[in-house]
């Protein structure tokens, strides 16, 4: 019999790629989404998998609802990808972020523990938890210093997953994932803002691109590869935490230069910076050490920084060309 996976945050970037991977592996994939007047299946549609995924409404603020969903779906594996995931918004909505991104995970783990503690659990932790990083590169033993309500909420969730593993013997693993991007990345995130901005400028749909801190440095990988590490973590005999990263860091400025070069444009003519886009507390420099993921999971990134920028800009150039020609957005975001 095939295994069943429940993915929260199925409508997000990682949810879509993970669903695709698990379907390829023969899983029954159930996607938990938050109830809205319309379900946003754009990313699942883009990958051509929407009709292969079962969808269930699910709310990270409602413990009873989660318990019933876990009972009804009876998953072998739960991947918790749902979160208020945008750092900038977390400064505007710190309490909501804490409720969903932090306490929501305790509710979910409690529901799993009550229904079936044998279910394997993946928690989407983040390099933002290292924040004002105490050492470079960051690995699984680097101390945390979160610099946003998002990062603080994720840290609470992270330690909760560790605690359920230690206290109840549950198979709960956290993937401390460094930034990972793709053409399915939300347009509010800086990489996608840049790739889409360059493409729209190229087609005369936009004049300028306004950004915040160009000197921030991140370790950027390709989301499609990062979901493979999530799955590998849940196949291990013992649950553990893993850093997932490329081991290379690049500045926002380098991302801009490369993206505009791919679009055939001189970035200095179009990019402006505005201090209004700076965060109350910035994270300047993150660089991950993925040695443990490599040695224990056999996981390694395959796509280079330049290839990633090319994949994103080329997808957005196709979208912008469509928009320029038809006067409306292309729904396809592959
Ligand atoms: N991408 C990265 O670089 C990165 C790095 C480290 C960790 N992470 C974490 O990894 C996870 C997946 O990232 P992503 O890039 O795929 O994020 P994303 O595209 O922003 O997706 C977030 C998902 O969470 C859902 N969600 C938000 N609030 C919810 C609520 N109250 N109840 C239920 N679902 C809710 C969203 O649903 P809607 O579609 O309805 O908004 C969406 O499906 C997130 O937890 C993120 O914080 C991401």
UniProtKB/TrEMBL annotation:
UniProt keyword list: Lyase, NADP
UniProt keyword annotation of NADP present: yes
Gene Ontology terms describing biological process: 'de novo' GDP-L-fucose biosynthetic process
Keyword NADP: yes
Cofactor(s) listed: NADP(+)
CDD domains: GDP_MD_SDR_e
Top-level lineage group: Bacteria
Enzyme class: lyase
Signal sequence, renumbered to the chain: none
Protein family membership: Belongs to the NAD(P)-dependent epimerase/dehydratase family. GDP-mannose 4,6-dehydratase subfamily.
Biological function: Catalyzes the conversion of GDP-D-mannose to GDP-4-dehydro-6-deoxy-D-mannose.
NCBIfam families: gmd (TIGR01472)
Name listed for the protein in its UniProt record: GDP-mannose 4,6-dehydratase
Source organism per UniProt: Rubrobacter xylanophilus (strain DSM 9941 / JCM 11954 / NBRC 16129 / PRD-1)
Biological classification of the source: Bacteria, Bacillati, Actinomycetota, Rubrobacteria, Rubrobacterales
Gene: gmd
């Amino acid at each position: 019999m095939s295994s069943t996976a429940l993915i929260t945050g199925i409508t997000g970037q990682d949810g879509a790629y993970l669903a695709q991977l698990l379907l390829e592996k023969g899983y029954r994939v159930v996607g938990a989404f938050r109830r809205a007047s319309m379900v946003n299946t754009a990313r699942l549609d883009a990958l051509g998998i929407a009709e292969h995924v079962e969808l269930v409404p699910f709310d990270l603020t409602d413990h009873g609802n989660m318990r019933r969903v876990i009972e009804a779906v009876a998953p072998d594996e739960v991947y918790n990808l749902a979160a208020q995931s945008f750092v900038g918004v977390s400064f505007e909505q710190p309490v909501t972020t804490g409720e969903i991104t932090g306490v929501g995970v305790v509710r979910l783990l409690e529901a799993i523990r009550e229904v079936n503690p044998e279910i394997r659990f993946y928690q989407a932790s983040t390099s933002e938890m290292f924040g004002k990083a105490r050492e470079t590169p960051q690995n699984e033993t680097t101390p945390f210093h979160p610099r946003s309500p998002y990062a603080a909420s994720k840290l609470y969730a992270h330690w909760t997953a560790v605690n359920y593993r230690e206290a109840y013997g549950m198979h709960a693993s956290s993937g401390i994932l460094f930034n990972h991007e793709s053409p399915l990345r939300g347009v509010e995130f800086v990489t996608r803002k840049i790739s889409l901005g360059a493409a729209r400028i190229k087609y005369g749909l936009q004049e300028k691109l306004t950004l915040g801190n160009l000197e921030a440095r991140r370790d950027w990988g390709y989301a499609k590869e990062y979901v493979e590490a999530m799955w590998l973590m849940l196949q291990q005999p013992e649950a553990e935490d893993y850093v997932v990263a490329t081991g290379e860091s690049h500045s926002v400025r380098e991302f801009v230069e490369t993206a505009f070069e791919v679009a055939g444009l001189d970035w200095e003519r179009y990019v402006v910076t505005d201090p209004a886009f700076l965060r109350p507390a910035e994270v300047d420099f993150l660089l991950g050490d993925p040695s443990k993921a490599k040695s224990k999971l056999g996981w390694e990134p395959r796509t280079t920084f330049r290839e990633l920028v090319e994949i994103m800009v080329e997808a957005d150039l196709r979208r912008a060309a469509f928009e320029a020609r038809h006067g409306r957005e292309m729904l396809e975001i592959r």
